[in-house]
Write a structure and sequence with these properties.
Two copies of one chain form a homodimer. Chain A has 137 residues and is α+β, with helices and mostly antiparallel strands. Chain A is built from three helices and six strands.
């Protein structure tokens, strides 16, 4: 595996930890995922900007403890790496519904690995026309 | 001015070039703003992801030549710097309307300065409650 592929894999693993923390309603894991030494910010669908670790994690905790039961998918993830920073682009959809959010997830590499510094999920005008391949059978 | 403030100013200047290119419908300036050596991607409001300089700039050209006449504002910009990468968060609104888009603009520092690698504008559920101060008088 090339160094480039290794980096992309590590970033995608951090991105997967984000969706696992969400789906398991795990506030502690969400807290570990977000960066502690870099500035952070978050834009939930339709909401205004949250800046700083305290506000971002407080809002995540609210969401995780109150949200209805469903599995959030990260469809079609693409990684772009900029040295110690990386972005994952993907689409989010719940359960077996078509994806309806376009997402920017930004990560930075800190001493112990990749951590999230920004999540932006924005509503799409129309859901993606197809479900991920694994759900088509 | 500290080095940190100088960096933030330079990033905000690149961000201002983005809105100037948009408002002046200047495809050439838009092309100069976007990075040439780093990967790029763009998420227009409600649309699906565009990846790569050719697709991103083609779509910008379509928008710039066809859009109605209005001035797009960048309200309440905030800069976060991650070494050679930086993010500007802001809200966009047209003319004197309340801002209705939440925005993530990502820049990287290339040989000749800061360039855009990602723009994500997502619809807000409710416009921001206030216009920028300069418009209140």
């Amino acid at each position: 595996m090339t160094a480039e592929n290794e980096t992309a894999s590590a970033v995608l693993a951090a991105n997967a930890r984000f969706y696992r923390a969400f789906n398991e309603r795990d506030s502690a894991a969400m807290g570990e995922l977000w960066a502690t030494r870099s500035p952070v910010a978050c834009l939930h669908p339709g909401e205004s900007l949250l800046v700083g670790r305290q506000l971002v994690l407080r809002r995540w905790h609210q969401i995780l403890v109150s949200r209805p039961a469903f599995t959030l998918r990260c469809d079609r993830p693409i990684v772009q790496v900029f040295g110690p920073t990386a972005i994952v682009y993907c689409y989010e959809g719940g359960n077996d519904e078509l994806a309806h959010l376009a997402v920017t997830n930004v990560f930075v590499h800190e001493a112990d690995g990749w951590h999230m510094v920004h999540h932006h999920a924005g509503p799409m005008a129309h859901p993606l026309p197809d479900l991920p391949a694994k759900n088509l059978n």
